[in-house]
C-alpha cells in the first residue's frame, strides 16, 4: 500500500526560474527545482557521486549540474547522465494553482 501523503511546501514563485530552493527536513534535505518552463522536480539534496549539494548546482533544461564535479543529474528520474552512473533519490512533485506539492 502506498502511504505517501501530499504536502504543500511553497509557492512556485518561491523557487527561482532555472533555480532551486531547499526544504530542510530530518532524514536529508530536499532540493526543489524549477525549469525555465515552470516544471517542478524534487531530489534528495545529495549528488550520488560525492554527496555534493545539488541545490547549489546550475539547472540546464531538465537536469542539474552538481557543483562539486559537474555530474549532470536528470531532474525527472534522479539518474546521472552518461558516462556517469548513480541515482539521487527522487520525490514526486506537482504544481497546482501556483503551489508546489510534494509526496512525502
TrEMBL record:
Residues 7-102 form the Rieske domain. PANTHER family: 3-PHENYLPROPIONATE_CINNAMIC ACID DIOXYGENASE FERREDOXIN SUBUNIT, FERREDOXIN-RELATED. NCBIfam families: nirD_assim_sml (TIGR02378). It comes from Chromobacterium phragmitis. Keywords: 2Fe-2S, Iron, Iron-sulfur, Metal-binding, Nitrate assimilation, Oxidoreductase. The gene is nirD. It holds the Pfam family Rieske. The lineage of its organism: Bacteria, Pseudomonadati, Pseudomonadota, Betaproteobacteria, Neisseriales. The keyword Disulfide bond does not apply. SUPFAM superfamilies: ISP domain (SSF50022). The keyword DNA-binding does not apply. This is Nitrite reductase small subunit NirD. InterPro entries: Rieske-like_NirD, Rieske_2Fe-2S, Rieske_2Fe-2S_sf.
